[in-house]
Amino acid sequence: MKALSTLGTALLFMSLGTIVPAFAQHEQEHAKPEEKQQQQHAQPQQQHAQQQNQQKAQPQQAQQHNQQKAEQQAQQHNQQAQQQQHAQQQNQQKAEQQAQQHNQQAQQQQHAQQHNQQKAEQQAQQHNQQAQQHNQQAQQQNQQQNQQRQQAANQHQQPAYHSPEQQQAQQAAWQQHRSQNWDSDHRSWQQRGGYNGYRIPDNRYNGYFGPNYAFVIYNQPYMVVGGFPRFQYGGFWFSLVDPWPNYWANNWYQTDDVYVAYQNDGYYMYNRRHPGVGIAISVSM
Prior knowledge:
This protein is of the alpha+beta class and 285 residues long. Helices cover 65% and strands 13% of the residues.
């Protein structure tokens, strides 16, 4: 009996275990259509809410997007402005550097010009000083040369002593070489074939000979060689090759100033009392 009772109890629990899940399943199946209906009824509302939320969110998103775009543009604008400002600063610095370099170059050029000007002034001053010294030396040399020439001329102008016999011989020699017809008797050195005798050095010629250095023949040493009169002046002997004109005074060699000049490829003696008449002469030591 006890076993049957136990078995019955067990069967009861088994039946209840089977009935309860079946009832729960039935409740669930009965509840599912309602939930489905509720869910189906809630979906349009959710979709509408989502759409409203989306519609509400779109202006915010657009505003955020525009704000982000504006911020980006502002940032880009700021970057461009900074770049432009940086470029302007660089250009300004470059311009300042170029201006500074230009000023330095101008200062260097000005300094070089001043240096060159000072150098030129110094050179000009030195040149002037050298020229003055040279002129002073030249003047001193000219004074010395003039003194020497004057002394030599004074010595040459001192009358040489002639004995009575020498005076007669000198007068006779001069009279023998007097021309009767000067135009026909006179011949230049070119007509004679050129001068081939001794030539006076330039330094001696410039100091004692020419129109500025006149003398009187009678005051100089004198001799007769081969019948021709010869006189000495300035350390050289001069012989008359031409006769002297007949219209000169008989004693012209005692009174008239004469000078020796080299002209027309030869030496000639000129009488200041009768200018333009040159008598051909030869030179010897």
